[in-house]
Each structure stands twice: as structure tokens, then as C-alpha cells.
Specification:
- The structure is a single chain.
- With 402 residues, the protein is α+β, with helices and mostly antiparallel strands.
- The strands form three sheets. The chain has a four-stranded mixed beta sheet with strand order 1-4-5-8. Strands 2-3-7-6 form a four-stranded antiparallel beta sheet, with helices on one face.
- Helix 9 packs across helix 11.
- The protein is globular.
- The model has no long low-confidence stretch (mean pLDDT 97).
Length: 402
């Protein structure tokens, strides 16, 4: 086992940290207060090849390994969850899914411009009445000649108002439960596609989240991703990638909470000494520090498995569950360390706490992941081989592997 980052990974980490310190942290308080998403930040990330960091070079990406993606997500969330979320959705949920399941024609048409950051991708799975219970979705896709007619709605869709392409999941067979779900690549410009942002969120206020409405949207058959009825497997594989980036982002939030708390501990004095000298404050700092190391190791293990081209659903679920819970606790303790000032946006920790709640819910609630880990341990759950696997790293010529 080698726990050292490669020179390339260290270089990317320094680059993203410098970017965050310059382009996000000085402005994020105002963006968060005003509920403003800044698409210009995505353009700057694209200029640094970070919108396709782990996509092979032959498809327009930087060709780096999956743990470099984790490093990017951790550093972005250190600035704010909104921009880690953008990379999670665009790269993890959409582009990596196209890389794993797309035809060569789909990759050339959609993956290449997304990896370059010329187009933005989003992911449409959740519905008003279908969150954890994916099979309860009501969106439909009816075959009509050389196309499908899609109707329905999706909610809590990140980048809904800025994405060019959506991965949309819909029922092609209502009687087949999860086996009746099919995946489609839907362009914003297709007639019948309408989006609407959601306001009044507890956290991630600087991010764009909303609804996607589909009314008689005609989607060419060549835009079907995978086989008819294979959508559930595709969605779950996509979530392996999305959850990996969410877990990595949580590492960044723990680090940000720890950094802010340590700084404040040295600045603030009570009873004649720095508050860091008080043992119960040290207990909170120690817990953050331990959780940072635990979460980072869990994420890197999942990334190592991805690099090997191996199934990692169990390991990624564990990393997401543990790190997101730890980030919420770290942010909560960071507010406590700051006392009354932690309750004000004069310091960033109140934003950390608000932002930390959503990842405990989305891409599998903590309860879902708890059940999954129990089923794995008891032998009730087993990951079966997928028809298509995410390519191992270092990347060979992926187009010749099919």
C-alpha cells in the first residue's frame, strides 16, 4: 500500500486549492446570501481541464485517475459545496455514465464536448414521489417509430437551468418495476423540455437546483442509453460514481471545518487562555481530525478499486455514508467551537453546517446506506457483474475495448 499522492495528484491539488482561494472563497459569502449560481466558474474549471479530469484524453478529458477526481472534489467543497456538486453531477453522474454505457457515437456527440466543458451535463432520476424508491417513478417513455415520447417530471436536479444535456430515466414498461426503466440522453433544446429552479433551500444556496418537466418530448432512438429496460442498472452504476464524488467532497468539508476551527481556537480566548486549551474543545477538534483521516482513506480505497476496474458499490456506499455523516458532525462542532459567532455568516462555519445536511440525504440517504452495509455484512446483498464496466486506469484506447 502506498499512501502518498503522486506528483501529478499533488500538482492538481495545489492548482485546485489556488483556484478555490482566488475564484470562490472571496465571493462565496455574497453568492450564498443572494442565492446566486455563477456559471462562469464552470468555464474557468473547464479551462483547467477539471470538468473532464478523469475522462480519457481520446474523449476530450484530462485522462487522470479516479482518485484525482476525488482530490478535485475535496478541494472544491473546501470552497463551497455548490461547485463540488456541479462537478459531481456533470462528471460523476453524467459524463462517467456515458463513458461506461454509451455507444461510440454517443460518446463522440455528447461525452467529448462535456469532457471539454463546452457542454454541461445533468442527471434526472429523482421525482416528487420517487426518491429512494426508484421503481416508483412515474415518468414514461413510449416507443413511436424511430423515437421515444417522454412525459413526466424530475425534481431536485442540480444544474437544471444550465445543463445542455440530461440523463433522464423513464418507465418503458409499467408492469416490470425496476426492470421496466430505460435511460435516455435528452437535450435541453428538444421541444417539450422546461426547467424551473427551486428557491428557499436550507443549504447549497449558491448552487442551481430545480425541476425538469417533460411534455411529449420526442427523443431519437439513438439517444437511448443502454438497452431498453436496463435503466435501473445504469442509474445504480451512475450513483456509484456520484456517491464517490460526494464522499470526496465531504472530506473537503471536514477539512474546511477543521481549518476554520483551529484558526478560531488560536484567536479566541476565554478564562485567560486560548479556547483550544480547553479539553472539551480539544475533543471536538480531535474528532474532526480523526474523521478527516478515516473519510479520506475510505474514499481513496473506493478510488483505487475504480482504478483497478473493479466493482466498488459496497466500498463507495461505505465511504459516502461515513464521510457525509462525519462532515455534518464536523460542521456542527465547528459552529459550537465558534460559539455565538458560529451562528452568524460573519464566519463560514454556519454555511458549512447548512451545506453539510444535503449530502446526508441525496444519492442514498444515510438510512439507505446503513441498510446496504448491513445486508452486505449479513450476506444478503451481492454485487453481480455489469454488462459494461467503467474503464480501468491507466486508460487504454477505450473505443477499442467494446
Amino acid at each position: 500500500m502506498n499512501f502518498e499522492l503522486t506528483e501529478e495528484q499533488q500538482s492538481v491539488q495545489k492548482m485546485v486549492r489556488k483556484f478555490v482561494d482566488k475564484e470562490i472563497i472571496p465571493y462565496i459569502q455574497e453568492w450564498d446570501r443572494n442565492g446566486e449560481f455563477q456559471p462562469a466558474v464552470l468555464k474557468k474549471l473547464a479551462d483547467l481541464q477539471l470538468m473532464g479530469v478523469c475522462i480519457p484524453e481520446e474523449y476530450g478529458g484530462a485522462g487522470m485517475d479516479y482518485n484525482t477526481l476525488a482530490i478535485v472534489c475535496a478541494e472544491l467543497e473546501r470552497g463551497d459545496t455548490a461547485y463540488r456538486t456541479a462537478v459531481s453531477v456533470h462528471t460523476g453522474l453524467n459524463s462517467m455514465t456515458l463513458l461506461q454505457w454509451g455507444t461510440e457515437e454517443q460518446k463522440q456527440k455528447y461525452l467529448v464536448p462535456q469532457a471539454k466543458g463546452e457542454r454541461i451535463g445533468a442527471f434526472g432520476l429523482t421525482e416528487p414521489d420517487a426518491g429512494s424508491d426508484v421503481a416508483a417513478m412515474k415518468s414514461t417513455a413510449r416507443r413511436d417509430g424511430d423515437a421515444y415520447i417522454l412525459n413526466g417530471s424530475k425534481t431536485w436536479i442540480s444544474l437544471c437551468d444550465y445543463a445542455d444535456n440530461f440523463l433522464i430515466f423513464a418507465k418503458t414498461d409499467h408492469d416490470a418495476a425496476h426492470k421496466g426503466i430505460t435511460a435516455f440522453i435528452v437535450e435541453r433544446t428538444f421541444p417539450g423540455v422546461v426547467t424551473k429552479g427551486i428557491k428557499g433551500k436550507l443549504g447549497i444556496r449558491a448552487g442551481n437546483t430545480g425541476e425538469v418537466f417533460l411534455t411529449d418530448v420526442r427523443v431519437p432512438i439513438e439517444n437511448r442509453l443502454g438497452e431498453e429496460g436496463e435503466g435501473f442498472k445504469i442509474a445504480m452504476a451512475a450513483l456509484d460514481n456520484g456517491r464517490f464524488t460526494v464522499a470526496a467532497g465531504a472530506v473537503g468539508l471536514i477539512e474546511a471545518s477543521l481549518e476554520a476551527s483551529v484558526k478560531y481556537c488560536h484567536e479566541r480566548k476565554t478564562f485567560g487562555k486560548e479556547i483550544g486549551k480547553h479539553q472539551l474543545v480539544q475533543q471536538m477538534i480531535a474528532k474532526m481530525s480523526a474523521d478527516l483521516e478515516i473519510s479520506r482513506l475510505l474514499v481513496y480505497k473506493a478510488g483505487w478499486l475504480k482504478n483497478q476496474g473493479k466493482r466498488n458499490t459496497r466500498e463507495t456506499s461505505l465511504a459516502k455514508w461515513i464521510s457525509c455523516n462525519a462532515a455534518f458532525e464536523a460542521a456542527n462542532n465547528a459552529v459550537q467551537v465558534h460559539g455565538a459567532y458560529g451562528y452568524s455568516d460573519e464566519y463560514p462555519v454556519e454555511r458549512f453546517l447548512r451545506n453539510s445536511k444535503a449530502p446526508v440525504i441525496y444519492e442514498g440517504t444515510r438510512e439507505v446506506h446503513t441498510v446496504m452495509q448491513g445486508e452486505y455484512a449479513l450476506g444478503y446483498r451481492e454485487d453481480k457483474p455489469l454488462r459494461q464496466m467503467l474503464p480501468a486506469w491507466p486508460f487504454e484506447q477505450v473505443s477499442l475495448q467494446k
